[in-house]
Amino acid sequence: MGRAHEVRAASMAKTAAAKSKLNNKWSRLIYMAAKGGVPDPDLNQNLKNVIAKARREQVTADVIKRAIDKAKGSDQTSYTELLLEGFGPGQSQLVIECLTDNHNRTQTAVKIALQKCGGKPAQSGSVTYQFSHLAIFTFKGLDEEEAVMALLEADVEPKDSYTEKDEETGEDLVTIEGEYSDYTKIREALVAYKADLEFVTDEITWYTENKVDLETEKEVEQFERLLAMLDEDDDVQDVYHNVNYTPSEE
User: Fold this and answer.
1) Tell me: the pLDDT tens digits for 195-217?
2) Alpha-carbon span 12 to 185, nearest angstrom
3) Disulfide check for 138: which of 21, 150, 200, 235 has CB 3.0–4.6 Å away?
4) For residue 28, what are the domain limits?
5) What sign results for the dihedral spanned by CA atoms 123, 126, 131, 132?
């Protein structure tokens, strides 16, 4: 299995979300993007990009429309990003991205989940320093040399780039990794070079190569329960961890 797949899927290890969880996540992100500017994707580039990502995850048009309509109304709900860190069972470490209108509620819920599953909250920076905070783009329709040149011409230097074959189609997939703070610059440079570029991955993520194995059946059970509890919390958007673990597909 290639590095591109590893970075995008197994090693980042986002929790597998139920449809309602997925819809809630993207409803909040679309609402925020619409509320932060004009609630029209034709006039709000950030909103347009968020909607495109939601559609790639098969969020329905109705969910998207309701989130935009909510932003157009008098609703004054204010969501803010909250990054939490934790030590789980065994040697597991977790980076937990949240989007919430109540920090105390979210911090308490995450703390309880960690403690019930053999873990504990971690101080800010005690886990994330072992992870890389990356902007990752995987796409087809542009070769690696062209992509890197487009970035350099835009005065953006990628951290890494590589090409792998799509296991299903056999097409070349190019992946560009950059600093998370360069996300917008990288995306704009790629789209400026090729407007109809087809993105497979387009996100900011946390990634670590320092992965560990859970040593006992109890640790595995605790870890799976922890992921399930975090997944059930609507304030939790994404979870990244350092465990060699792939959720079973139901």
Assistant:
1) 989 898 999 999 998 999 999 99
2) 23
3) 200
4) 3-72
5) positive
